[in-house]
Amino acid sequence: MPRTTVRPVHTVQELRQQVSAWRAAGERIALVPTMGALHAGHMALMTAGRQHADRVVLTIFVNPTQFAPTEDLSRYPRTLEADLAKASAAGADLAFVPDVAEMYPEGFATTVSLTGPALGLETDFRPTHFSGVATVVAKLFIQAAPDVAMFGEKDYQQLQVVTRMARDLDLPLNVIGVPTLREADGLALSSRNVYLSADERAAAPVLYRALNDAAAAITTGTPIAHAVEAARVTVSGAGFDLQYLEARHAQTLAPIQSLAEGPVRLLVAARIGTTRLIDNIAVPS
Ligand code: PAF
Q1: Residue 254: predicted pLDDT
Q2: Is any ligand 1 atom within 6 A of the Cβ of residue 118?
Q3: Minimum-distance ligand 1 atom for the alpha carbon of 152
Q4: Is the pTM of this model over 0.90?
Q5: Is the distance from the beta carbon of residue 66 to the nearest atom of ligand 1 less than 6 Å?
Q6: Which residues contact 49 (CB under 8 A, 6 or more apart)?
Q7: C-beta of 35 in contact with ligand 1 (< 6 A)
Q8: Which fold has domain 8-178?
Q9: Structural domain boundaries of the chain?
Q10: pLDDT tens readout for residues 213-244
């Protein structure tokens, strides 16, 4: 494991001091918000951040407000030392690692309320999730004042929610989506993949294959509704408990019926065993 060199800071004040010093020296800042348990997908976010800025600020905060009471916040993996070593290897300059009291001080009473791309999909299954995400991300944007912020396309709805929020609240930064990293068989990288049994792992690439087959069918003229229905049948037939598999407008995430209406994104969420997987792809037009 590489030696830990990235500097962790725990308070907003320390974060602002460092960022101000970089800014005074004319440097651009990239923010990479995470909840830790870093894997290659997070490393790709830091690498992309480095391409857009002089300094990369990683944040590690397991945000309680985006977990429902039924989702076990206490079981979320916390691997700070390993994360800091990985952040160093990926070239991060600073790690902001606040505790809950720093982010949500006594009496905290403000949340970001969302419509638009937050409607449906994940929200149908995790109704309070994006409000928690948007609130903590808005705080991180204000605290770190970055020029750019990097988000994985793997959480595509999150990317659109955060992009819309930054635009709507006039937050002066660019939100940049970073393409999903995949295993050789197409399975999107996720910290949850480790929970898959051997049989579940073997079945998991069906999600990506079904999305690709649907995208190819739509591109060659199959009506979206038919292609999506065929993909749902494939995913359910492979032993998944399908939560949604939908075609949406790639930016607004509004339902979409044809390629003529705009860029199309296909998004899926499904459970296999006890593990919930999500994935998405663009439909070439
Ligand atoms: O994608 C995540 O890890 C989290 O939702 C984020 C953006 C760090 C907010 O807590």
Answers
A1: 98
A2: no
A3: 1
A4: yes
A5: yes
A6: 30, 31, 32, 56, 92, 148, 150
A7: yes
A8: Rossmann fold (3.40.50)
A9: 8-178, 191-279
A10: 999 999 999 999 999 999 999 999 999 999 99
Residue 24 Cα to chain centre, angstroms: 31
Q: Which of 158, 160, 165, 178 to mutate for ligand 1's pocket (most ligand atoms within 8 Å of CB)?
A: 158
Band of pLDDT at residue 75, cut at 50, 70 and 90: confident
**DSSP-assigned beta bridge partners for residue 95:** 8, 58
Which CATH number is 191-279's, of 2.60.40.10, 1.10.10.650, 3.40.50.10840, 3.30.1300.10? Answer: 3.30.1300.10
Residue 38 phi/psi, 5° resolution?
-65, 140
For residue 237, the CA-to-ligand 1 centroid distance in Å is 31
Instruction: With CA atoms as reference, report the closest residue to 153 among 179, 175, 130.
Output: 179
- Tens of pLDDT, residue by residue over 263-274, are 999 999 999 999
**Ligand 1 in reach of 131 Cβ (< 6 A):** no
Cβ of 132 closer than 6 Å to ligand 1, yes or no, is: no
Q: Which of 21-25, 73-77, 205-209 has the lowest mean pLDDT?
A: 73-77
Structure tokens at 73: 């916040």
Query: DSSP H helical segments within the chain, as ranges?
Result: 12-24, 40-52, 80-89, 100-103, 122-125, 129-144, 156-168, 198-203, 206-219, 224-237
The four Cα atoms 25, 28, 34, 37 give a dihedral, to 10 degrees, of -70
Answer for the pair 20, 27: CB distance below 8 angstroms, yes or no.
no
Predicted pLDDT of residue 194: 87
Catalytically annotated residue among 42, 52, 226, 249: 42
Encoded tokens for 104: 């949500």
Residue nearest to atom 6 of ligand 1 (CA): 34
